[in-house]
Amino acid sequence: MQDTGRNSNKDSNMDNDMNNNANNNVNEQPLSDDKRLREMYDKLVGYEKTIHEQNQKRIKIGLRCIYIIPLFFLVLLMIVPDSSKIIFLVLWIVSLFAIAVYLIGVEYVDYKLQEKMNEISGCDVQSVSPVVQIEDRVQEIAERVEQRFDTMQQSTGEDAEQ
Predict the structure, then answer these.
(1) CA distances for 119 relative to 36, 115, 129, 157, angstroms
(2) Cα separation, 78 vs 71, whole angstroms
(3) In the prediction, which pLDDT does 122 show?
(4) Count of alpha carbons within 13 Å of 91, Cβ hemisphere only?
(5) Where is mean pLDDT largest: 5-9, 84-88, 109-113?
(6) How many helices (H) and strands (E) are present in the chain, helices listed first?
(7) Contact between 52 and 114 (Cβ < 8 Å)
(8) Is residue 50 scored above 70 in pLDDT?
(9) How far apart are CA 23 and CA 86, in angstroms?
(10) Which residue ranges have biased composition labelled Low complexity (predicted)?
(11) Which candidate among 26, 107, 123, 134 keeps its CA 20 to 30 Å from the CA of 59?
């Protein structure tokens, strides 16, 4: 019977060791889980930023295409004989619509991506930024127009004085 007592002591010691190991693993596991989750989140944010930058490039290319491709068809429309003008007119219109759909699609995908990222990070939904910052560009153009207008007024004022 003493052997049974020793076995039960060994069993209880093994149970204590397993519990201690389990407690240690529980204490260590959240740290490694937090670290892994942080790494995954950082990768996800990096991926989102990369996709956003690629979408900005796609929008710039699309805006260039909306100037160049329809202009090409319009020039061909003016050059070709009367019998082929309808074809180039249709191609001109279709190219405008196709490029517009492409630009809308890229903006929509980027918007949804940012919306999901804000949902994951817990940010406000209103913090979604557009792919192309139009306000900055408009402000630059307005400042240039004002500068030219001021120089024109100064030059006309000097001409009136003479």
Answers:
(1) 20, 6, 14, 58
(2) 11
(3) 76
(4) 14
(5) 109-113
(6) 3, 0
(7) yes
(8) yes
(9) 79
(10) 15-27
(11) 123
146 HSE (CA, 13 A, CB side): 6
Position 126: which residue type?
A: Q
106, pLDDT greater than 70 = yes
pLDDT for the residue 57: 92
CA–CA distance, 103 with 133 (Å, rounded to integer):
14
Spatial distance between the Cα atoms of 56 and 106, rounded to a whole number of angstroms: 9
pTM of the model: 0.56
Rounded Cα distance, 17 and 19, in Å:
5
pLDDT at 75 over 90: no
